[in-house]
């Protein structure tokens, strides 16, 4: 069993635009190699919004050098970007946007969700790109709930859903640029599950809702992040009550990480170039 490095319930939240009050579960700024190939995980825990005359959200902004992944559990999010792609994602859907060489995008509550109000629950994950892919063409994957393979664990009612990577013979539909696993767990109270991982992979477990025991003794409640040492081949989760858990695991990208706001590159010089390219219009424009 892997040694638990740290377990922490995140209680502080900050606003992204006026539509997404998020808790940062982990960030590359706290140690890039420990969370690689990921950079950041923001959780907008269940938040009740009243009806509004206009959609709340975050306006046009750039990215370069990584991917943003939005997982919606409740509510609806609308997206537009400078590749001309976009749309609305709702419960169970995932938006996987590759910034690559540069993209402009915006994210708002959908018009229907803004008009009716309701509960929003979502995750945004930043996924790093290896140096060879940082300047790849930008792209967008709209992954609907019916595309994800789901199965029960052996001899258990608890189930898993594979978003990216492979687990127990099931492969998620997301196109990925480095080895990783992004997976939802729906845990049933009283069940104990062992999760195997390659020993050299980084593993982060985020308890979104519910209460679980991690590695037979460490309690994790709503909005709790657990990280592990790279010294074993499995971890254990046991649900005290029904719980939803997000697994983010992968092979570290052993390259320098230099970030500046919406840009994550390998050198300071590449950050300067990104800023210059943005100023000169190199990231494109949102369609009218």
Topology:
Blueprint (H helix, E strand, L loop, with lengths): L3 E6 L4 E3 L3 E8 L4 H4 L2 E12 L7 E7 L2 E9 L2 E5 L4 E4 L4 E5 L4 E7 L1 H6 L1 E11 L10 E5 L6 E3 L6 E6 L1 E2 L2 E2 L8 E8 L4 E5 L5 E8 L2 E3 L3 E3 L3 E5 L5 E6 L3 E8 L7 E3 L2 E3 L2 H12 L9
Antiparallel strand pairs: 1-22, 2-3, 3-4, 4-11, 5-10, 6-9, 6-11, 7-8, 7-10, 9-12, 13-14, 14-17, 15-16, 17-24, 18-23, 19-22, 19-24, 20-21, 20-23, 25-26
Name the structural class: mainly beta
Strand content: over 45%
Question: Distance between the terminal alpha carbons, to the nearest Å?
Answer: 53 Å
Element pattern in H and E: EEEHEEEEEEEHEEEEEEEEEEEEEEEEH
Radius of gyration: 19 Å
Q: What is the number of helical segments per DSSP (H or I, 4+ residues)?
A: 3
Q: Please mark out the parts with pLDDT under 50 across 5 or more consecutive residues, or reply none.
A: none
The largest β sheet comes out as: 7 strands, antiparallel
List how many beta strands DSSP finds: 26
- Mean model confidence by pLDDT: 97
Strand order, largest beta sheet: 1-22-19-24-17-14-13
How much helix, percentage-wise, in residues?
Answer: under 10%
> What sort of overall outline do the alpha carbons produce when their principal axes are compared?
globular
Q: Keywords, please?
A:
8% helix, 288 residues, seven-stranded antiparallel β-sheet, 3 helices, mainly beta
Structure description:
With 288 residues, the protein is mainly beta. Helices cover 8% and strands 51% of the residues. It has helices spanning 32-35, 111-116, 268-279; strands at 4-9, 14-16, 20-27, 38-49, 57-63, 66-74, 77-81, 86-89, 94-98, 103-109, 118-128, 139-143, 150-152, 159-164, 166-167, 170-171, 180-187, 192-196, 202-209, 212-214, 218-220, 224-228, 234-239, 243-250, 258-260, 263-265. A seven-stranded antiparallel beta sheet has the order 1-22-19-24-17-14-13, with no helix packed on it. A seven-stranded antiparallel beta sheet has the order 2-3-4-11-6-9-12. It has a four-stranded antiparallel beta sheet with strand order 5-10-7-8.
